[in-house]
Amino acid sequence: MNWNREIVLATPTLIRGFFVLAASAFVLGLGSCAERATGPRELTFGHVGEPGSLFALSAEEFARRANERLDGFEVVVYGSSQLGGDELLLQKIKLGTVDFALPSTVMSSQIDEFGLFEMPYLVRDRAHMREIEKEVVWPELAPLAEQEGYRIIALWENGFRHVTNNTRPIASPDDLSGIKLRTPRGIWRVKLFQTLGANPTPMALSEVFIGLQTGVIDGQENPLAQIWGSKLYEVQEHLSLTGHVYTPGYVVVSASHWTALPADVRRILEEEALSVQTFVHDTAARLDDELLAQFEAEGVKVTRPDRDAFLIASSDIYDEFDEAVEGGGLLVERAAAAGSN
Predict the structure, then answer these.
(1) Residue ranges in 184-262 assigned as alpha helix (H)
(2) Average per-residue pLDDT in the chain?
(3) Phi/psi zone of residue 197: left (φ > 0), alpha (ψ -120 to 50 degrees), beta?
(4) Cα angle vertex 168, ends 165, 173, to 5°?
(5) Contact at 8 Å (CB) between 151 and 145?
(6) Residue 310: left if φ>0, alpha if ψ -120 to 50, beta else—which one?
(7) 136 to each of 7, 130, 163, 277, 306, how far by Cα in Å?
(8) In terms of C-beta distances under 8 Å and separation of at least 24 residues, what long-range contacts does 256-261 make, across chains too?
(9) Average pLDDT in the 280-301 region?
(10) Rounded to an integer, what is the distance from CA 76 to the centroid of its chain?
(11) Using the 8-state DSSP alphabet, how is residue 139 labeled?
């Protein structure tokens, strides 16, 4: 047998077979791509809350409600800083690589006027916050956020914040003296705890557990639901119910990329984001009641301090805000008086 001749004769057949297989694979690939293209487009929702936190419960409820109505789109929630911390998430919002984020304190570092919600004991309760939302947030603060590239579509909650630490019970401002206390990256929270005598250390929430466990910091301050969701009770001995600041959670999208979504999709998302607020406030109030008993069951010692003493000790912050932020004093006055007419 002439093997060279057989190989030469077989070569065209082999080549044709190769191209048939390649063409088939290409067609199958196109088919699978077409199948993927017909699936829902993912709308990413990033936040820093751990499973079980108020952020997680709120975002998941929003996604559930929105997805029941959406056609061709699906909200997918990524918590636990999977898509980045607050500052990175805000950058991604502007770039359009994340569709929704839920920043809180960090907004005061992006837009000076949002420092309003860093003023101690300004927000009396959730009913008062809803009045502030109507009279101050939507007419005054939301347009400022839009100018910076962030469109706020709803106002949820982070909550009333309290202090935990491993040094001593915090019954008065004097007890904070010298304590290395983690704060979010907001200038006014740092100023507040400097005024109260602590040693504030800005740090991402995702780093707090290890910081407490290793002694890099002595304590931190957060709403009860965030403390519980992050399991900080495992590395903290004392919880002081200072309630020093109420922090909203802002549901933000990109001011420039948002309009690329179909109008009916935007309408559904905005309606559900707004409607979830009642669920958020009800859940937050329930957790505030339930979690205290759970903290105590975990061995955390709970202190109920005199909040008036903290307000008096930190009152200079209001004057600083008025001097540093144009119109800051007027914003405070309007917020304090909201709902009183």
Answers:
(1) 187-195, 208-214, 224-229
(2) 91
(3) left
(4) 85
(5) yes
(6) alpha
(7) 84, 10, 28, 17, 29
(8) 256/94, 256/96, 256/149, 257/96, 258/151, 260/96, 261/73
(9) 97
(10) 15
(11) I
Q: Cα(170)–Cα(237) distance, rounded to whole angstroms? A: 11
Angstrom distance (rounded) from CA 111 to CA 152: 13
Q: Are 50 and 79 in contact (CB under 8 A)?
A: yes
Task: Encode pLDDT of 112-155 as tens digits.
Answer: 999 999 999 999 999 999 999 999 999 999 999 999 999 999 99
Identity at 59, one-letter amino acid code: A
CA distances to 73, 97, 112 from 88, rounded to whole Å, are 24, 11, 19
Residue 150: what residue type? Y
The pTM for the full model equals 0.87
Cα 30 vs. chain centroid, distance in angstroms?
A: 39
Helix (H, G, I), strand (E, B) or coil at 251: strand
Residue tagged 């995702």 (tokens): 206
Residue written as tokens 């080549």?
15
- d(CA 158, CA 78) in angstroms, rounded, equals 17
pLDDT in tens, 117-128: 999 999 999 999
Provide the residue type at 283 as one letter.
T
Inter-CA distances, 112 with 141, 147, 152, 166, 253, Å: 10, 13, 16, 33, 19
Cα-to-chain-centroid distance, residue 211:
20
